Structures are given as C-alpha cells and as structure tokens.
Amino acid sequence: MSEKFDKQYLRMAQIWSENSYAKRLKVGAIIVKDQMIISDGFNGTPRGFANVCEDDNGNTPPYVLHAEANAITKVAQSTNSSKDMKSETFKCLVYKQIAPKGVILQTTTYPFNEIIFHF
Question: Where would I find the H helices in the chain?
C-alpha cells in the first residue's frame, strides 16, 4: 500500500475517532484490505450501555471497548478477513485482539510514529 493511502487512512481513523463519547481520549481505527475499508471502530461502550466512557474520577470503566477491538469485532462478524489496521492512537497494546497472523498495524502516535507493526 502506498504511503499516500496510508496517510489518508490514518486521517480517516482520526476523523472516525470524533464519534467517541470519551472525554479524555478519542480513538478511531480503520481496517483496510486491498485498499478498501472493510471495518472501522472507535472507543466507546458496548451496545446497550450508557455512552459514558469515564467515571466521575476520570477513570475508564472496564467495559469500555478500544477502537481497535470494535473494528476487529465488526470484521469478525462479517465474511471479511483483516489485513491492515490503521489507528491514530496506540497507547494500549491490545496484542491479544490484533495478533492474528497477517495483521499490520500502523499508528501515528509517539513513540510508535510511522512504524508499521507486523503481527
């Protein structure tokens, strides 16, 4: 995939993060295969929960889902298989959920700027 498309997909992940109800950190993720978006996600609560991502003390409840996990869950429920994941923030290393062979994660967040992770 070209660097031009990588940067565009990362910008799209950043824009998608605006859908999050989180106050402290909004995160978006896009899963791409053959230069087509096959899934997306943003950090937030599961369906049926109140859209509250932090408690009164600013702590994140354990049921709040990561953007990457939401994107993976969506694609897992479809017939698509993932290949590339673009996430504009990668503070929490959620290896268990993005570890399937062949998944490539790219992020723009320090200290991983412009690094592509192969799992």
Answer: 3-16, 67-76, 95-98
Find, among 81, 85, 79, 80, the residue nearest to 104 by Cα.
85
pLDDT at 116: 44
Q: Kindly list the distances between the CA atom of residue 77 and the CA atoms of 32, 50, 68, in Å, as whole numbers in the listed order.
A: 16, 23, 14
Exposed (0-12), middle (13-18) or buried (19+): which is 83, by Cβ within 10 Å? middle
**pLDDT-based confidence at residue 115 (cuts at 50, 70, 90):** very low
All structural domains of the chain, each given as residue ranges with its CATH number in brackets, are 3-118 (3.40.140.10)
Q: What is the mean pLDDT of the chain?
A: 75
Query: CA geometry: angle at 89 spanning 101 and 8, to 5°?
Result: 80
Give tens-digit pLDDT for 1-52: 578 888 899 999 999 999 999 999 999 999 888 888 888 999 998 888 899 9
Q: Give residue 44's identity as a one-letter amino acid code.
A: G
How much of the chain is helix, strand and coil, in % rounded to 5?
Answer: 25, 25, 50
